Amino acid sequence: QAFPLPSLPRKQPTVLVVCGPAQNGAIGLVCARHLRSFDYEPTIFYPKRSPDPLYRDFTTQCEKMDIPFLSYLPTEVQLINDAYNAVVDAVLGAEAEVAEGTEPCAAILATLKHIRIPIVSLDVPSGWAAEAGGSGDISPDVLVSLAAPKECARRFLGRQHFVAGRFLPYDVQRKFELNPPEYPGTECVVAL
């Protein structure tokens, strides 16, 4: 439901999916697969690939779907703005404290903060503290919270906020005292 964004014309539905080395990067790979299935044209930048077998499988699936991988992220932001209609931020997530200042994440964040096309952040915008800390330099247009919104979502000022949490087992909902929204029909995400 987070796609199609009104700013993505169907005649050129290009999306750059920027993946980090940890869990949020794997979620970005899955996102790229789904975008391809719905006739978008994703391109993936995944500079620090995880050795985890599951992440390797996700990478292979994307390759088998003929999703191109960039070998480098242009530092000239205008090249990205001209080539794509949106960027999916799957660089960091709740694990931001671990990798934010390390390469390649620091260089990616430096580039993303200057992007002028819509940014869709998965779970936690990269560079933001998941809990009570301040927000980073990235200002996404869309936030897709996974499972439940994190504390940082209170500071989100973009156009649309979605939550994808229908899949949460009831015992997890009870344990963390989550009150998920109603998901209409068979929808897996809902707008907040």
From TrEMBL:
Q: Which residues form the YjeF N-terminal domain?
A: 1-180
Q: Which gene encodes it?
A: Yjefn3
Q: What Gene Ontology terms describe where this protein resides (cellular component)?
A: mitochondrion
Q: Tell me the protein's name.
A: ApoA-I-binding protein 2
InterPro entries assigned:
YjeF_N_dom, YjeF_N_dom_sf, YJEFN_prot_NAXE-like
Gene3D superfamilies assigned: YjeF N-terminal domain
**GO function terms (MF aspect):** NAD(P)HX epimerase activity
**Pfam hit, one:** YjeF_N
